[in-house]
Amino acid sequence: MYAYIVKRVLLMIPTLFGAAVLVFFLLRLLPGDVCEVRLAGTGLYADPRDIALCREELGLDDPLATQFVDFVGGYLTGDLGKSMWTGQPIEYEIGLRFKLSLQLAIMATLVAVAFAIPLGIISAVKQDTWIDYAVRTFSIAGIAIPSFWLGIMIILGLLIVTQKLFGAGWMPPINYVSPFEDPLGNLAQLIWPAVATGYRYSAVATRMTRSAMLEVLREDYVRTARAKGLVEKLIINRHALKNALLPVVTIIAIEFAFLIGGLVVTEQVFNLNGLGKLFVDAVGNQDFALTQQLVMLVVLIFVLTNLVIDILYAWLDPRIRYA
Amino acid sequence: MSTPEIAVITDELEEKRSLVAKTWDLCRRQPLGAAGALIVIVMMVAAALANVVSAYDPELNDLEHMLEGPNAWHWMGTDEFGRDILTRIIYGARTALAIGFTAAFLGATGGLVLGVASAYFGGIIDLIVQRIVDVVMAFPLIIMALVVVATLGPGTENVIIAITIPFIPQCARVVRSSALSIREIPYVDAARALGFSNGRIILRHMVPNVMAPYLIMLTAFVGQAILLEAVLSYLGMGVQDPTPAWGLMLKGGAEEFLESAPWVSIFPGLAISLAVFGFNLFGDALRDVLDPKLRRM
Q1: Average pLDDT of the residues in B133-160
Q2: Distance (Å, rounded) from C-alpha B52 to C-alpha B59?
Q3: Which CATH number characterizes residue B187's domain?
Q4: Which of A139, A285, B128, B197 could form a disulfide with A203 if both were Cys (CB 3.0 to 4.6 A apart)?
């Protein structure tokens, strides 16, 4: 088991290094940089000397190899650098928004799990009945509806309903308040984007629950349980569900990792100041320093999640360990 | 010379007949899949006949009819430039399908070649290819696409590239795992013993046997590509105005006039959802028919 864990952890290093190389050189492939966006982006005349000075200050003139060593070396010294747009340390920029993104990811996961597991089970148990078709349609729709558009529709719905009820349209607040200081204000802001993203997320998890359950329900030990006359409820809860949960937990974990940095559009729609919006802004400003660190953060969360899942699998299933 | 060619032609004929039979089977046993196919076909026909079906010019501004609600002349209303929304949705189907099919085809085919080659050659080549696949798959789809678009700049071709790149490793991984089991079957050894070239063995003996996962990935990619294109265009990093594209129609104006002109944002979103819904329904059914083992993917 230890050998397996060590092997998996060591395998992470080339993946992370490869990701660093990829994102670093991709961003520097074409001309154009933050200095041009900042000084000439407004359409006004920009003095080439100012641009040159700005580049020198930010180290954009250094040879690529030096810049790359700075970037990767930063992980060893703990210095992630500064945003090329605001000049603030990157830890500060990320720290400011991490809480919101994390909370949103947790809330969306709760919404998703609450729907996905019961719906997936019912759909599998009642396979090919109208209930199954309804659940499948509901979940395929969840994958098809873009969450940002669902967000726009939720805002529209809120506007119309509050207009009818109170005579004045109400929109969710834009400023983030901590859930510990003002739980209601916090909820009023974040419940809507959580529902908008949670629907898509639950759709993915529902489909996984359904197919995992279908597979397990055909196993011999389920037939044995039925043959010995166990109550159906017990068979489903104790014999089938437990064995079907592993792939479901996997997909939930992967989606959760994705949500922390990947809500680029939904945050835009709800005007939330989270990591996704920071990423879109950084890309738009050609702020290489911030973009590459954000990408690496998302990749790291992704890779770590996969690591945890793999170890969990190996722990639960000895066949994987020795393969 | 002529005998193998004839053999190839009859092969194709047989395949076509079985395809018709499969389609008929699909409709009877997979009502959801048939519904999906219907949506996809209607969308394709509308896109192909866009200039016949719609009465307006999708890019022509008509300032006398700005932000009109749905009425007899403009069934879905007009946008802030007075352009007919229904017309732009129909033309938008062209953009969505063109980008969706191109990106899905390039991504799935790239993955097919890479996956089969990786499994066939094995050893160091397999190791290198799999490490690269690991790296690219560590990026969430949308993040990878955004980084690529940030590098190349917006525009239709660049959107296609940005969507294709993250697709390739996904398909490569799935194809590789089925190709690995095929490599062990004796006929591949037989082909090698007969002295066939690597290229011939890959193309004639291995690729045809991994068509099922390839087709499944391909259909799944079309829906995903349409969704990704909408997201990129919505963020202003995809297709550029005045080209009609669904994501673009939701951008800017749509939210600004949300209260006064909700139709500007309702209909394009419905179009995206319906299109992706259709492709997903169809893809699910196809997967059930072609390969029940892959149901969990």
Answers
A1: 87
A2: 16
A3: 1.10.3720.10
A4: A139
Partners of A208 on chain B (C-beta within 8 Å) are 296
Whether B29 is in a domain gets the answer no
Confidence of residue B1 (pLDDT cuts 50, 70, 90): very low
Residue A29: list chain B partners with CB under 8 A: 151
Note whether A138 and A211 are same-domain residues.
Answer: yes
> Which of A23, A26, A140 is closest, CB to CB, to B281?
A140
The verdict on a CB contact (< 8 Å) between B146 and A136 is: no
Look up residue A204 and give its two tokens: 């993915």
**Residue A156 C-alpha, separation from nearest chain B C-alpha, in angstroms:** 7
Enter the ipTM: 0.83
B219-227 average pLDDT score: 93
Tell me whether residue A322 is in a domain.
Answer: no
Q: Please, which residues bridge with residue A82 across strands?
A: A89
Whether residue B26 lies inside any domain: the answer is no
Residues 6+ apart with CB under 8 A from B176: B114, B115, B116, B118, B119, B126, B130
How many domains are there within chain A?
Answer: 2
Contact B138 A299 (CB under 8 A): yes
The Cβ-side half-sphere exposure at A85, using a 13 Å CA radius, reads 19
Chain A nearest-CA distance from B150, in A, is 6
Is residue A15 helix, strand or coil? Answer: helix
Contact between chains at A208 and B32 (C-beta distance less than 8 A): no
A183 cis-preceded (ω within 30 degrees of 0): no
A156 contacts B258? CB cut-off 8 A = yes
Q: Which residues have C-beta within 8 Å of that of residue B145, sequence separation ≥ 6?
A: B162, B163, B165, B166, B228, B232
CB contact under 8 A, B234 and A148: yes
The whole-number pLDDT of residue A121 equals: 93
**Residue of chain A nearest B227, judged by CA positions:** A146
Taking only residues 130 to 169 of chain A, the set having a beta carbon closer than 8 angstroms to any beta carbon of chain B reads 133, 136-137, 140-141, 143-146, 148-150, 152-153, 155-156, 159, 169
CB of A135 within 8 A of CB of A123? Answer: yes
Q: Give pLDDT tens digits for A106-162.
A: 999 999 999 999 999 999 999 888 999 899 889 989 999 998 999 999 999 998 888
Same domain, A146 and A9: no
On whether the CB atoms of residues A209 and A117 are closer than 8 A, the answer is yes
Tell whether A1 lies on the interface with B, counting CB pairs under 8 A. no
CA distances from B194 to B186, B189, B201 (A): 12, 9, 10
The residue behind tokens 């349980």 is: A225
In 3D space, the residue among B204, B203, B223 whose CA is nearest the CA of residue B287 turns out to be: B223
**Residue A200 · residue A266 · CB < 8 Å:** no
- Tell me the pLDDT tens digit for each residue of B153-195: 888 899 999 999 999 999 999 999 888 888 888 888 888 889 8
Residues ≥6 apart with Cβ < 8 Å to B30? B285, B288, B289
- Per the structure, the count of domains in chain B is 1
